[in-house]
Amino acid sequence: MDFNDTNEEASWRSEVRDFLEKEYPQELRRGGRNEGGEGEGLFRSREANTGGIMKRWRSTLASRGWVAPAWPKEYGGAGLDTKRQFIMNEEFAEFGAQNVGGFGVMMFGPTLIVHGTDEQKKEHLPGILNGEVQWCQGWSEPNAGSDVASVQTRAVRDGDDYVVNGQKIWTTGAQFADMMYMLARTDPDAPKHRGISYFMLDMHAPGVTVRPLITMAGSATFNEVFFENVRVPARNRLGEENRGWYIGTTTLDFERSSIGSAVGIRKQLEGLIRFAKEHPAVTVGAGKQSVQAALADRWIEALVAKMMSYRVVSMQSAGLIPNHEASMCKLFTSEMGQRIAALGLKMTGLYGMVTGGPGEYAAAGRYGVGYVAAVSSTIAGGTSEIQRNIMAQRGLGLPRD
Ligand SMILES: Cc1cc2nc3c(=O)[nH]c(=O)nc-3n(C[C@H](O)[C@H](O)[C@H](O)COP(=O)(O)OP(=O)(O)OC[C@H]3O[C@@H](n4cnc5c(N)ncnc54)[C@H](O)[C@@H]3O)c2cc1C
C-alpha cells in the first residue's frame, strides 16, 4: 500500500491546513502549541457550544458544510468521502483544532439520515447542525454494558405515546443534553435482540432525572439517568417497533468509523519528547536510559497505530465495513494512550501533578490528570476484553466457547 497522499489528497490536505491557519480563532489557540483537540463537543452545554467564540467557529465551519463533513450536502453536510474525512480529522488533530460535532453530528444524525422519516429529519437535523440541540447516547444500563442487548428500560405503548421507565448509566454529557437517542425494551417476551426499539427522548420531559457521576479524574463527564413514567410520542420512535437493535448497529458503525486518527496521541508523545529535551534534569531523575528507551518504544507504537487506522480507512474507502480491524485499532490506540500517560507521569513526577500555577506543563496538570483520565479509554466504546473477543472470533476464527 502506498501511504502517501495522491495529488488530489495532498491538495485537499493543504486546503484544510490553510483554512485552519487562517480561520481558527486565536482565542482557541493554546500558546501556539496545539497538542490535540479537546472535548470534541461531546460534553459542552448548549450555551458553551453555541455562544461566544464557539458560535463564530461553528458558523465559519457551517459556511463550508464542515460542522458535519460526512453528511450528504442535501442535509447540510459536505458530503466528503471517507478518505477526505480522515485527512480532515488528521489535520484538525494535528492543528489541535476543536470540533463542534458531538454525538448528534457524529452518531445520531447519520443514523437518522439512514433510518428516519422525512418529518423526523426535518424536525431534528437542523438543531444538530446549528448546535441548538445537544444529544446524548442512552444505551448502557447497570446490567447492560458490554451486552447492550440486555437493556431492561421499558417502553410501553399508551395511545399516541410510549411510557418509559428504567435507568441508564455512564451517559456522557446527559447533564447538558436536550435529547437522548436510546434503546428501550418494547417486547419483554421476544428474544432479547428482537424486543428493543430505538427512541428519541426529550431530556426536559417530566420524569427524567439526571445524576452526574464524578470520575477519579475529578470531572463529571457522565451520569446516571432515571426515567419515571416519561412520555415519549410514538412519532419519536426511529424505525419499526422491536427493530431498534438493528438500527442501533448502524449507530455503532458510525461510532467505530469515527475512530479517526492516531494523531492526537502522537501529539501527546511529541509533547513528552519536547519535555524531555527541555527538562533534562527531571528526565535524568526518572532514569535517563529507561526514559529514552520507553520514548522510542512509544514512538514505534504511534507509527503502528497510524498504520492500523490507515487500514481501517482504506477498507471504508473500498466500501467494506471494518470489523475486527476496527477492534484492533481501538484496542491498540487506547492501551497505547495509557502507556504514554503512565510514561508522562513517570517523567514529570510531582511536577506533572500540579494543576495550578504558572508553567506550560504544571498549569495543565496534564500528566497527572491524563493518567487517571486514560483509564476509561479501555472501557468506553467497548472494553479491551470485548475487542479481544471480536479479534479472536471474527479475526482468528477461534470458537466462541
Ligand atoms: C468514559 C466513558 C463514557 C461512556 N459513555 C457512554 C455513553 O455516553 N452512553 C452509554 O450508553 N454508555 C457509555 N459508556 C458505557 C460503556 O459503553 C460501558 O462502560 C462499556 O460498554 C462496558 O460496560 P460495563 O461498564 O457495563 O461493564 P461490563 O459489561 O459489566 O463488564 C465488566 C467487565 O467484564 C468484562 N466482560 C464483560 N463481558 C465479557 C465477555 N463476554 N468476555 C470477556 N470479558 C467480558 C468487561 O471487559 C469488563 O472488564 C461510557 C463508558 C465510559 C468509561
Key attributes of the depicted protein:
401 residues, alpha+beta, Butyryl-Coa Dehydrogenase, subunit A, domain 1, Butyryl-CoA Dehydrogenase, subunit A, domain 2, Butyryl-CoA Dehydrogenase, subunit A, domain 3, 4-stranded antiparallel beta sheet, globular, binds flavin-adenine dinucleotide
Based on the coordinates given, report the CATH architecture of the largest domain.
Answer: Up-down Bundle
Strand coverage percent: 5-15%
**What is the averaged pLDDT score?**
88
H-E string: HHHHHHEEEEEEEEHHHHHHHH
**What fraction, in percent, of the residue positions are helical?**
40-55%
Bound ligands, named by name, code or SMILES: flavin-adenine dinucleotide
* CATH H level, superfamily name of the largest domain: Butyryl-CoA Dehydrogenase, subunit A, domain 3
